[in-house]
Each structure stands twice: as C-alpha cells, then as structure tokens.
Amino acid sequence: MLDKGLGSKLQASCMCGIVGCISKDNVVPFLLEGLHKESYRGYDSSGLCVFAPAPVTIKAVGHLDQLESKLAGLDMSGHLGIGHNRWATHGGVTEQNAHPHADCKERIFVVHNGIIENHAELKGKLQEKGHTFGSETDTEVLAHLIEQFYTGNLEDAVRQSLQVVRGTYGLIAISADEPDKMVAARMSSPVVVSVAGTKGYVASDPTALAGHTEHLTFLDDGEVAVIKAGEFHVTDLNSKIKYKPLTKLDWSSEAVDLGAYPHFMLKEIHEQPVSLTNTLRGRLLPKTGDVRLGGLTSITGQLRRVKRCQIVACGTACYAGRVGEYMLEEQAGIPCEVDIASEYRYRNPMVDKYTAFVFISQSGETGDTLAALEEVKRKGGLTLGIVNTIGSSIARATEAGVYNHAGPEIGVASTKAFTSQLAVLAMLTVLLGRQRHMSQSTAAEIIQELARLPEKLAAAASVSEKTLQRLAENLVNARTVLYIGRKYQYPIALEGALKLKEVSYIHAEGYGAGELKHGAMALIDKAVPTVAICTQDSVYEKTLSNLQEIKSRSGPIIAIATEGDTQIESVTKDVIYVPQTLEMLQPIINVVPLQLLAYYAGVARGLNIDKPRNLAKSVTVE
Questions:
Q1: Which member of 181, 487, 611, 617 is catalytic?
Q2: What is the pLDDT of residues 434-456, one digit of tens each?
Q3: Given 16, 21, 309, 318, the catalytic residue
Q4: 460, 482, 510 — which closes off a domain?
Q5: Is 617 one of the annotated active-site residues of the chain?
Q6: What does 77-139 look like in DSSP terms, one character per residue?
C-alpha cells in the first residue's frame, strides 16, 4: 500500500464545477441543470457518469451544449450520477482529460475541482503497482488511489487516499460496488451538500441547488461527507463524526434562470435596483441616523478602537474597495489602504489590534483573498468579510462581516455584486463614522440617499438600446479605449475599463483623469476614444478641463454626466445622463451605463457575453 502522510493545504485550485445527485428518480435532468448553473466556473469541457444501472460516462469538449448534443436521443437514466464542468489546468482540452475520471476497472469514478500537487510522484508509484492511466490530468490519480485503497468501503478508501495527496480538492467519488452513496470531500475548494426528501445533492456552489432544496451544509477543509438518498453524515479524515450546521438557501430557481433576457449579464445589470434594495433592507435607520449591520454587532467594541482599515480583494471587488477607501477616509475619518490580494498575500503585513482588515469577495471563495485572510488571522488581526455567498469560506473564516444579499450572480463579469459591495461599504462608513465624529444629520442624509438609490439605478439603466448600440459601435474598432475619472470616479474608470476588456476583448485602460498629461495623452488621436466619468461633484471642473484637452487633440469622447448638465455638451455630443446623488454614492449610479456599454460592445462583436474566453467566475487559482 502507499505511504500515508496528511497532505498540505494549498490555496490554489482550478475553477471547475462539480455536481452529484442520488435519488429514486432519474438524476440526469438535475445533473445537466446543475452544470448549467455552474457553467461560469469552467467551460472547456464537461462530462457525466450515471449508473444506469451499469456505469455510463459521456464527455464532450467545448461548452455544455456539446455534451447535451451527445446525450440527445440516448435513453440514459439512473438513480446516481456525477457531473463536471472543466477549466483546464493539467492537460489539454480533450475528451480524455475531461471528467469524470475512472480507475483501471472503471468501477470508481471521480470529479474534482482542485490541483493535486504531488500527482506526478503518486502516478509513478501507482504505475509501479500496475495502474494504467488514460489522461494527462492530475485528477485521474485520485481515482486510482481510491482503487488502490478500496476494500469494500468507499468512504474509507477516499479518506486514506486524501491522506497521501498534497494540494486542493473539492471532489465527489462514486463506486459501482456501492451504488447507494456518494462520497464528497473538501480542501480549499468549495463543496456544499444537502438532502431533500429522498434525494441527496453535492455541488461546488449553492447556485446549483437553487429550487431543489432549502437547506444545505458547507464542508470545511479536511472533511468528508457520505451522502445517501435522504441522509448524509460528515467526518474528518480520521473518521471522527463532525456535527454541521444547516444554512438556509434563500435563492429561488427563477433567480438563476435567464427569463426573457438574452444574457445573464444584461439580466443582472437590470436586477440592480432589486439587488440593491435587498442589500439595504432592514439596515437603514433614518430616524436615528444609524445603520444596523447585524453581522458586526458582536464586535462593536473592537470597531470603536479601530484607527485604520485595510481592504483586501481581487478584480472588481478591489475596485469597490478603492471607492470604499475614499468613503472611509473622507466621511468616517479613518485612514484606509487597499491592496490586491494576489500581491498582499506575499507581503509581510503589519498587523495590530487597531486595524480592521476587510476582505471583499462575491463568491467568498477567491483563493488569493482567502490566503491573505489566513495570513492576517495567523497574526491575530481583526478580520471582516463582505461576501455575497452565504456560508462560503471567507464568510466562515472572518471574525465578523456583512452579507450582500444581492442574489446569485451567474455572469462572469460582475455587475450587481459590485454595486451591492459599494452600498455595504457606504453603510460600514456610516457605522464607523457615527462611532466617531459623523453627525446625526450627515448620517441621516447618507441613509436617505441610500434609500433612494434603487430608483435612481433604474433610471441610470434606462438608456435606450439604440443609443447604447450606437455608442458601443464607436468602441468596437478602436485600437484602445481610455476610461478616466477623478476622486470617487477614478475606481469606476478602472472598473469600466475592466468590464470592456472582459466581455468585448477590446483593450482599455482606466486612468485618474489628472494623470493623462503624465504620459497617456500621447495616445490620444481620432482612433482612441475616451470614456469620461464627469458627473457634477467636487472635481467636476477639473475633469471637464481634462476633456477639453482631449477634444483639442481630436480624441472622441463618450461622457457620463449629470442630468441637466449642458456644459458637458461643449466637449462632446455623446453623453449618457444619470441621476445625481451624494458624491460618495455617485459611483453606484455611474457604473451602470459603463456596464451596459461594455455589454453592447461585446454583443456587437458577437461574443459569448456570460462566458468570456480564458475567464471563470470563481477565481480560486493562484
């Protein structure tokens, strides 16, 4: 037998999606539905294994519709099955490398989200013992390990196998010799399990279970779950029973369906008035000029002692943090710094009891952010989370935090989660500000404007499709696009440029408007459009002056401007007008037309809006 040795934990994994179901009914419809709901996690290839009653495995390269085409016309049904969406790491995008993977006898089948660091070493040892491999993937090692340890009890074989691997995993294993169970396990890759009636479920993401169950359990690192029809239990790798809480899933099946929209991104842009309402619901106290953030109540005393904030996040969430930096410093009087998690995790952070470390992530599973969080916890820092996914790793690892309640976000390009994050940061600013110097009247004004934002967001999203298509076409043939803004709008320029890159593959850069003359102005000519966020605020005149400089150099300009502003028309006729609000809240409104502009640019280029090439929704790779 192979030597045992508990694998080390690595904060890196692939971004695949896994699903599993056991039922008295046919599980294939659920597996396909679950893969569709998790398809944002990976879409290089996909596959199913169903016991029908003998094991049947179907794989396909490409998006999920390729797998469905293979299944069309097949009389394939079974009571137990697992499925996988792949985002390739080890091995090319081929059917042989697609999951599920099997052992030598094709009796044990595994789907896996993660990276097995010592797969080459293990593969060599297994080959010496006579095992033959049919793929280039690290995952296939797991199937053969389980086979090597299998003596009639699948969960025991899984536990023993996981004690010799190093790396990360969210996995499901099934065996044709024990067709009454699934075994799932987790190490730094999300896994949720649930039962409803006589059905048992496993998935990477709660999204896959929406509409099928109301309660679920999140596995922690080093835990193994055995799921049968209508029951499950959880142990650690040493078979010790773990008692797990249930989390209520408040997402409906409609929340993860397209409805009448052509793409999830467009649906989620237009859902923002509702998602923002849900983020704010029950948290605004206008009469007293306070906010109620229940997830922070337990640390009220610690927050009063905070003298500094450190925000850590990736991508769009990091840009939300940059807006929060302005809010916290200007309104709450708290010095704040923002770091990209993928860089922060390699620093030697200075941690003290007077700093609040805020980790922002839509999924709550972002690998770099989790790694940074663990480093701060190791040094005794106060950790707070702003997370959209209930029960996710960051939500459970932080000492306290705030849920977004924005609902599931399926499109890879984040939209409604971003505006929700900004609203949470605004409420956190009021909470901390009221503990310090912020007056009741100032807080009440912010709270009243927060309450009005859903209606103003709806107005900002009401730009005519014809106008958006025309403006987007101005960007489609550009060799690059500049996005500019100042102060609160600078991070929105960064976010606008990111959205255009993500969904249209057009190169774009976000700039602080005052930085143009320090180099980027050399790019300006008739072929380089500038998207300018120029709403009326404390730096409006300065931004307008920058636009005059661009106009004098024949640069095309698309401006986001405040309703009723006629001065902006002196520099451009291509204007999208938005409602006005407080300067600190204006980014929440201004980003909406930028989201729409990116969307229509992607549509004009005929691209897959919800699944951009080379990207996946939950970024758990290093």
A1: 617
A2: 999 999 999 999 999 999 999 99
A3: 16
A4: 460
A5: yes
A6: --SEEEEEEE--SSS-SSTTTSSPEE-TTS-EEEEEES-BTTHHHHHHHHHHTT----SS-ST
Residue from 351, 357, 404, 365 nearest 383 by CA: 357
Across 136-140, average pLDDT? 93
Residues 57, 134 within the same domain: yes
Residues 6+ apart with CB under 8 A from 522: none
Please list the residues that pair with 509 across neighbouring strands.
482
Q: Which amino acid, 403?
A: Y
* Contact between 428 and 323 (Cβ < 8 Å): no
Q: Do residues 288 and 196 share a domain? A: no
pLDDT digits (tens, 9 = 90+) for 393-433: 899 999 999 999 998 898 899 999 999 999 999 999 999 99
Residue 9 lies in a domain: no
Q: Are 560 and 466 in contact (CB under 8 A)?
A: no
Q: How many domains does the chain have?
A: 3
Domain containing 276 equals 264-460
Q: Does residue 199 share a domain with residue 113?
A: yes
Residues 378 and 434 in one domain: yes
Q: How far is CA 205 from CA 20, 43, 119, 244, in A?
A: 12, 15, 25, 17
**Residues ≥6 apart with Cβ < 8 Å to 619:** 15, 314, 315, 366, 367, 368
Helices (H) and strands (E) in the chain, counts: 18, 27
Say whether 16 is catalytic.
Answer: yes
